[in-house]
Prior knowledge:
Structural class: alpha+beta
Strand content: 15-25%
Number of strands: 17
Largest sheet: 7 strands, antiparallel
Order of helices and strands: HEHEEEEHEHHEEEEEHEHEHEHHEHEE
CATH class of the largest domain: Alpha Beta
Number of helices: 11
Shape: globular
CATH superfamily of the largest domain: FAD-linked oxidase, cap domain/gating helix
CATH architecture of the largest domain: 3-Layer(aba) Sandwich
Strand order of the largest sheet: 14-11-13-12-16-17-15
Distance between the termini: 42 Å
Amino acid sequence: MVDYAKLVQEIERIAGSSALLPPEMCPSYAVEGKVPQVVVFPETVEQIAEILSLANREGATVIPRGGGTKLHWGGIPRQVDIVLGLERMNQILEHEPADLTVTMQAGTRIQALQDRLGEKGQFVPLDPPFPQEATIGGTIATNASGPKRLLYGTVRDFLLGVKVVHADGRISRAGGKVVKNVAGYDLNKLYVGSYGTLGVLVEMTLKLLPRPETERLFFATFPDLASAVRVASQIFQSELRPSAIELLNSRAGALLCQELGISITSGPLILVGIDDVALAAERQYTQMQRYCMAEDSVEIISLSEEKQRRLWNIVRSFSRIVREREAEALICRINVVPSRVGDLFQKAEELEGSTGLPVALLAHFGNGVVFL
């Protein structure tokens, strides 16, 4: 049995009383309904190492927490003794614009990082859900990604190095801080998608890209699912280089438009991101228009830059929006090969027709990731 009084006392000694959340507020940090005995916000790597060493000796469970946006992912914990909040570990430690690298602490928010890098015309090519809340540590630990992984890939493609605190308090490093790094095994990739089971990520180095000159959105609605799938497939299989291809059925499209505050013709829709130099972006956009002209009753929608930004945030946060509108909704993430996305949509809509259950579908079409 864990002696919780002793545990809290020792954690307070390590991190200070200001690092502890008042007990009456701990329920707000519950994980899958399990309320932690203590919530602590360390400010240094050494404090994290001491807390983990203590928990290891006392047999207490530890749940690392960044922005808390993905705590419902992965397995349900047996018990929750300590929630280790990394919110105060949010410093950008090194940014080398000439080398296109950045090193930061795990609690750095994705949007705050992008804003800082944007001052130098650079960005981290990651677009996980809820970027204002999500942290870089949580994004790596859950291997979270968004619609633009089609062009840019996932976090493992840009992770150069990590510093990790293990369950017994040992601190280790993997990888390095430069792009051309051949020092030992590529262990840093092992931590991508590890959900905190191999240790607590505390620092990481990522490689960067220059911001694209132009970011455009191609937005079209279709009279039926088959025509939307045909155009999405043509774009995916063409020589074009879209950053994202999103396919939504009629119900999901209606929800997106409600959130965005626009009124359009009801029907399935596709959203295509174009990140390129201006001339190339215009050529890609024109080619997509040609694909649509071969179909009947296609409507191409133009949005302001502000609405385009909001639209992509809605797409990234789609599952949360569904949950907020319908608390009893069952949300599934399904992976299929891209060529079968249309078949999955068709079967799901047939299920809606036979059962009467409303089905909203959104797919990262080029990756075969479908949210139902």
